[in-house]
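Field guide to reading this record: the first block holds the primary sequence, the second block holds the structure written as discrete tokens, and the final block holds curator observations. Each block starts with its own label. This record concerns UMP kinase, catalogued under organism Actinidia rufa.

BLOCK 1 — SEQUENCE
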Amino acid sequence: MMATVMNSILLQSALEKMGIKTRVQTAFSMPEVAEPYSRQRAIRHLEKGRVVIFGGIGAGTGNPLFSTDTAAALRASEIQADAVLKGTNVDGVYLCDSRNNNVMSEHISFRELASRGASPMDMMAVTFCEENGIPVVLFNLHEPGNISRALCGETSWDTD
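BLOCK 2 — STRUCTURE
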């Protein structure tokens, strides 16, 4: 629970150092470090050009039964986001090919991802994004510059 809030604050600090205005929202009260989640306030922050980071259990839902992926998909739907950005420790979705086990897909449909059974993202979140028409962009957090590239729309992996 606290780790995701701490990560949110670290991300906020990094973005603020680059001159990007941000707000952190959580589903539980932490007024010293974040504001309480409010859909209307989140949308207003976005309208003002701020980045909104949802922290806490399940990306700020306050429900421990939600994965952070599923909660991110839920919040994306609530604020009518253009996409869900998923930072992870892989470069993308690798396809199994009998000739080469290291074939990476640059683009894959939600259906194809679901049929493969293994995903770098929770399948409930993938399904939720598909049902709500929200593309998912996956990027490797360990490669310098990837967060900026993902924010600028340069994808390493996406779904539609």
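BLOCK 3 — OBSERVATIONS
The chain has two domains: 1-81, 83-160.
The radius of gyration is 16 Å.
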